[in-house]
Amino acid sequence: MKIAIVILNWNGKQLLEKFVPSIVKYSNLPNVEIVLADNASTDDSVNFIQENYPNIKIVKNLKNGGYAKGYNDALKFVNADIYALVNSDIEVTEGWLNTIISTFETEPDTSIIQPKILDYKNKIKFEYAGAAGGFIDKYGYPYCRGRIFTSLETDLKQYDDVTDIFWASGACFFIRAEVFHELNGFDESYFAHQEEIDLCWRAKNLQKTIKYVGKSTVYHVGGATLKEASPRKTFLNFRNSLFSLVKNLPQNKLVQILFLRLVLDAVAGIKFLLELRPLHTLAIVKAHFSFYYHLPKTLKKRKQIQQKNNYFSINSIVWNYFISGKKTYKEL
Q1: Please, what is the angle between helix 231-248 and helix 195-205, to 10°?
Q2: pLDDT score of 224
Q3: Do 53 and 90 fall into the same domain?
Q4: What percent of the chain has pLDDT over 70?
Q5: Shortest CA distance to 314 belongs to which of 168, 169, 139?
Q6: CA 187 – CA 177 distance, rounded (Å)
Q7: What CA–CA distance (Å, rounded) separates 14 from 244?
Q8: Lowest CB count within 10 Å: 11, 124, 197, 245, which one?
């Protein structure tokens, strides 16, 4: 089984200087290749890798197409059984590959895996982008074991298990190459944010298994390429979540759930106004206009069979968190 660790980079020399050493140190296993997928950087990051890590393969993309297109383009030139898609702001740990490789080898039905993701800046806390494995509620809002909205749990080894999840974080995302290509990769209209949720949902619609492996640990800086408080991030998250609902919801649920989600988005916009963050309210408005503009194309992407299975373990994470006051996964 050949593993390709593929690091997506855009003008990230400082991140590469800081985090590539841990990947090189702890990935020295047979049949493991490290690849830099560069999104047309204009800084010195590619030269840095060439001069300091000549064994790292470099794939140069012609443009910065974001996370989705960046990986889609680069992986055409990567020959492996398993793709390990790793953000440039990830620090890995000793043995991080062992249990993941073992799971793939012993569980042929497992297609996608996420390790435990902790906060690089506060290593006892779970990190926002993925934590201990992701889920969504019936309105498409994502949450994780170890992280619900902005509430982050302390790592007390409560999630050191192996378990099925709904989505794996794109910050550190393992997928069988044959499954990635069967799904035609990431949806490039997303550009960045939540494209991994869409890909995982499409995998679920094809009865693929997605797992979290808690004995593998990585640390993620988070927000290194787009800050958490960025209105641009708000725009992408709200728009892309709507894309995923339209593409993947069963036909008998689409109209009702989509309408209720649009109402909840309006409430979120009002909340941002009350918090004196009008740029985020504007970002939600722009997200909706962009969603409507792309709606005809998005509807055409509903090609795969929409399963009638209910993937949603809870009805509304918004209700549970803001009204019922449930701040941890265990309370849900």
Answers
A1: 10
A2: 47
A3: yes
A4: 96
A5: 139
A6: 16
A7: 33
A8: 124
23 in Cβ contact with 34 (< 8 Å):
yes
Same domain (yes/no): 284, 152: no
Instruction: Give the pTM.
Output: 0.94
* Rounded CA separation 191/70 (Å): 9
Q: What is the pLDDT of residues 240-286, one digit of tens each?
A: 999 999 999 988 889 999 999 999 999 999 999 999 999 999 999 99
Using an 8 Å Cβ cutoff, are 57 and 36 in contact? yes
The pLDDT of residue 315 is: 87
For residue 304, the model assigns a pLDDT of 67
Instruction: Provide the 8-state DSSP code for 314.
Output: S
Q: Given pLDDT bands bounded at 50, 70 and 90, which one contains residue 307?
A: low
Q: Give yes or no for residue 309 having a pLDDT over 70.
A: no
Contact of 296 with 189, CB cutoff 8 Å:
no
* Euclidean distance between CA atoms 61 and 166, whole angstroms: 30
Tokens of residue 6, six digits: 């593929």
Strand partners, 122: 119
The alpha carbon dihedral of 90, 95, 98, 103 has a sign of negative
In this structure, the answer to whether residues 254 and 168 fall within a common structural domain is: no
The residue segments making up the domain with residue 66 are 3-220
**Span 305-313, average pLDDT:** 69
Q: Report the distance separating Cα 144 and Cα 108, nearest Å.
A: 25
Residues 120 and 212 reside in one and the same domain: yes
**Do 175 and 245 sit in the same domain of this protein?**
no
> Would you say 6 and 37 are in contact if contact means Cβ atoms under 8 Å apart?
yes
- List the one residue out of 142, 36, 31 whose CA is nearest residue 87: 36
